[in-house]
Amino acid sequence: MPEQTTQFHDLANQSVLITGGGTGIGAALTEGFARQGARVAFIDIAAGPSLALVDRLAGEVDHAPLFIEADLTDLDQLRTACARADEAHGAVTVLVNNAALDDRHEFLEMSSDYWDDNQAVNLKPVAFVAQAVAPGMIAAGGGAIVNFTSTSYMLNIGSMPSYTAAKAGIVGLTKGLAGRLGPDGIRVNAIAPGWVMTERQKRLWVTEEGLSAMIERQCLKRPIEPADMVGPCLFLASRASAMITAQVLIADGGMM
After folding, report:
1. Residue of 8, 42, 163, 195 marked active site
2. Which CATH architecture has domain 9-251?
3. pLDDT digits over 100-150, tens only?
4. 176: which residues sit within 8 A by CB, 6+ positions away?
5. What separation in angstroms does the CA of 86 have from each of 79, 94, 138?
6. Which UniProt keywords apply (predicted)?
7. What's the rounded Cα separation, in Å, for the pair 180 and 49?
8. How many CB atoms lie within 10 A of CB 114?
9. SS3 252
């Protein structure tokens, strides 16, 4: 990951919780916050990459990230994981809801069970992780929640309607939580990435033709990398954005 040239000093020693923090964008976020001196806990279901990330960072940052293995579709596991983060680092004051699964699916063949399972990954945990950490944030006097949505729901993409519905729902949830938690000093914002070149994307869906077409639509003519999401997230988590809440920051190279 490129070195972060901006230091947000108020993030040092903050208790940060990141969902889906072991791979892709999430791993870049885990590293980015750890390099700010934050005490990072991250939840993921993929133990191998997550443990490798912790091992790699352990000797390079002040506080090695804490990996918490949990299935976020299981509310008991979700709540236990959030409690572990609180116990390890103190009340979570920065929450990054990043976990997602952008499987493609055919609308005309979509079952009720598929819809429920997909929403259970992509939307429901955003609400219930926030619910789990909010009391600690309130007791601490405030905090910041950053939810990852996507530009995909704005583009009329037909190959993943449940996913794009969830990502649109995250925007509504972000605004609702900002209204509810703002009086408690908690800011809630969202980031909408463009097509980020994670290893999963490159393995499953990226073609030379498709990537070229996307870059042609962008103002900035290069692929978007996971590390490109770190700066916007650090900004929204820090006091640099002290009066910003209920907003969606689009980070797509100017494609929209």
Report:
1. 163
2. 3-Layer(aba) Sandwich (3.40)
3. 999 999 999 999 999 999 999 999 999 999 999 999 999 999 999 999 999
4. none
5. 11, 11, 13
6. Oxidoreductase
7. 36
8. 14
9. coil
Q: Is 163 a catalytic residue?
A: yes
SS3 168: helix
Could you tell me the residue ranges of all domains in the chain? 9-251
User: Nearest Cα to 94, choosing from 187, 212, 210?
Assistant: 187
Q: How far is CA 70 from the centre of its chain?
A: 16
Confirm whether pTM is higher than 0.85: yes
Q: Which two tokens stand for residue 97?
A: 């809801």
Whole-angstrom distance, CA of residue 11 vs CA of residue 239:
9
Q: Is residue 241 very low, low, confident or very high in pLDDT (cuts 50, 70, 90)? A: very high
Distance of CA 134 to the CA centre of its chain: 17
The tally of CA atoms less than 13 A away on the side-chain side of residue 149 is 29
What ranges make up the beta strands (E) of the chain?
15-19, 39-44, 66-69, 94-97, 143-148, 186-193, 248-251
DSSP 207: -
Q: Which amino acid is at 81?
A: A
Please state the separation of Cα 242 from the chain's center in Å: 19
Contact between 235 and 189 under an 8 Å Cβ cutoff? The reply is no
19 backbone dihedrals φ, ψ, rounded to 5°: -90, 145
Alpha-carbon distance of 48 to 68, in angstroms, equals 12
| Helix runs in 185-246, H state only | 199-204, 208-217, 230-237
Residue type, 196: V
Q: How far apart are CA 80 and CA 28, in angstroms?
A: 24
